[in-house]
């Protein structure tokens, strides 16, 4: 693996582990990018199974693709994330986590994760 790609894969692996280490993770389904080349490190640390969908079949990752589309409302593809401060990012993350989703039976990700019911009007 090219050194730059290896460094990126190491960063992605470490960021994934750091973000999910104390979370109830059973499976992870990333895209097929080279940045996930060190997926075994993630599996070893998190004890989670990683599934890679077949190439050019994004419909097998429907929730992921939908979430990417929602993120693009606030963070256009190819934009430099350094242009936004942490407060802006956290505000948008909270907004997305409080948005009801059809795939969650119209509950919000917040409600599902924290097993709480919100009365959103």
Estimate the mean pLDDT confidence. 90
The global form is: globular
Number of strands: 2
Low-confidence segments, given as residue ranges, are: none
Helix content bin: 40-55%
What's the gist of this structure?
The chain is mostly helical and 121 residues long. It is 45% helix and 3% strand. Strands 1-2 form a two-stranded parallel sheet.
Description:
- Strands 1-2 form a two-stranded parallel sheet.
- It folds into two domains: 1-52, no CATH class; 58-121, no CATH class.
- It is mainly α.
- The chain is built from five helices and two strands, in the order αβαβααα.
- Strand 1 (27-28), helix 2 and strand 2 (49-50) form a beta-alpha-beta unit.
- The mean pLDDT is 90.
- The protein has helices at 3-20, 39-46, 62-72, 86-97, 109-114, and strands at 27-28, 49-50.
What labels would you give this structure?
121 residues, mainly alpha, two-stranded parallel ribbon, 5 helices, 2 strands, globular
SSE inventory with pairings:
Layout: H1 3-20, E1 27-28, H2 39-46, E2 49-50, H3 62-72, H4 86-97, H5 109-114
Parallel strand pairs: 1-2
Helix pairs in contact: 1-2
């Amino acid at each position: 693996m090219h050194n730059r790609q290896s460094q990126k894969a190491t960063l992605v692996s470490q960021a994934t582990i750091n973000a999910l280490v104390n979370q109830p993770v059973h499976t992870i389904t990333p895209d097929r990018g080279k940045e996930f080349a060190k997926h075994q490190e993630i599996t070893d640390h998190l004890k989670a199974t990683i599934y890679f969908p077949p190439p050019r079949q994004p419909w097998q990752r429907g929730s992921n693709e939908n979430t990417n589309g929602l993120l693009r409302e606030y963070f256009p593809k190819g934009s430099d994330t350094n242009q936004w401060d942490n407060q802006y990012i956290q505000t948008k993350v909270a907004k997305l986590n409080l948005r009801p989703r059809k795939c969650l039976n119209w509950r919000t990700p917040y409600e599902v994760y924290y097993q709480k019911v919100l009365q959103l009007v």
